[in-house]
Amino acid sequence: MGLRGGLLVLLLLSFGCSSPTGTTASSTPKAAAPAATPSPAPTTAAAPAQQGPETLDQLAQAFSGQPSFDDTRAVVAFGPRPPASPAHKKTVDYILRRLKSTSARVQLDSFTAATPRGPMPMTNIVAKFGQGPGQILLVGGHYDTKFLPGFVGANDGGSSTGILLGLADVLSKARLQKQVWLVFLDGEEAIHNEWTDADSVYGSKHFVQLLQQRNMVPRIGCFILADMIGDRSLDITRETNSTAWLVDFVRTAETSLGDQAYFFKSRMDISDDHGPFLAAGIPSVDLIDFTYGPGDHGLGYWHTPQDTMDKLSPTSFKIVGSVILKTLALLERQ
């Protein structure tokens, strides 16, 4: 991911801060301003109680961060996970194995990216929940890590993998009014050291191109990106490129859950996987904690060997997972 303002920092598809327990990490291209989108107001009234599968509201209240934390630890144990590496393949296999235990309809979007290191195979993984021809809500995050010696990316790449797998578990229990797709994105990180618009977010760009080729963009209600959300000292940044009305939905969600202390106390322009979605006119929000460790910019652990599991907390996964589920519940009612 890339930071603007002085510091450079961050499907094949068949379409149908306050410290919870103790620190944070990053992403990249800046999107062109999308066409104006309508700004629906969040509806907070709870859905009527029914028997059978659980509502998203109920799942938001009950979400546990421990399974997501455990999944993060499992992929971090593979070591550095840049595209085309043995550990990257182990991560893909792990994600697919875990998704088999859910009700997801899983599809792979495999492609070859033109990178500064030459052609490189990459794979986005899409886990689909719910049915019907209507609107689709997307939640995504990247699972690759940057080409850096000793960089295991517990927060940056690991936590987004873990939270999506935790969400897959609970969405299997959900009574959904709209489809929800979880998108595990490959190739978020720049292949060379410096992040550029050309050398970054390969998976996001490819996935959005597929949506456009299949005329699917009008069906996409939103894209919620989770990146670097496991930090023990959770402090989700208000990313200023994100769609304003969708940010308001997140605010309503976190306030209703009592988690407002962990969100949007600081503002920053961050380039990340939501950029290509915004450029395509898809309302998007980047949930990213971009204060991760010591130093002048609070990024002492970002893209370093110090981005390890001891910096993360299950409580942070619980907070972010609950807020994502509550936001989806609000969006379902629009």
Account of the 3D structure:
By secondary structure, the protein is of the alpha/beta class. The chain has one domain (2-33, 63-332): Zn peptidases (Aminopeptidase). It has helices spanning 56-62, 66-76, 86-99, 154-171, 202-213, 244-256, 275-279, 314-332, and strands at residues 2-3, 105-115, 118-129, 136-142, 179-185, 220-227, 236-239, 263-268, 270-271, 284-288. Helix 1 packs antiparallel against helix 8 and helix 2 (66-76) crosses helix 8 (314-332). Residues 4-19, 21-37 and 44-52 have low confidence and may be disordered.
Which consecutive residue ranges, at least 5 long each, have pLDDT under 50?
A: 4-19, 21-37, 44-52
The gross shape turns out to be: globular
- Total domains, how many? 1
Instruction: Give the integer mean of the pLDDT values.
Output: 88
Question: Which features does this protein show?
Answer:
334 residues; 8 helices; eight-stranded mixed β-sheet; two-stranded antiparallel ribbon; Aminopeptidase; single chain; alpha/beta
Task: Please describe the topology of this protein.
Layout: E1 2-3, H1 56-62, H2 66-76, H3 86-99, E2 105-115, E3 118-129, E4 136-142, H4 154-171, E5 179-185, H5 202-213, E6 220-227, E7 236-239, H6 244-256, E8 263-268, E9 270-271, H7 275-279, E10 284-288, H8 314-332
Parallel strand pairs: 4-5, 4-6, 6-10, 7-8
Antiparallel strand pairs: 1-9, 2-3, 3-5, 7-10
Helix pairs in contact: 1-8, 2-4, 2-8, 4-8, 6-8
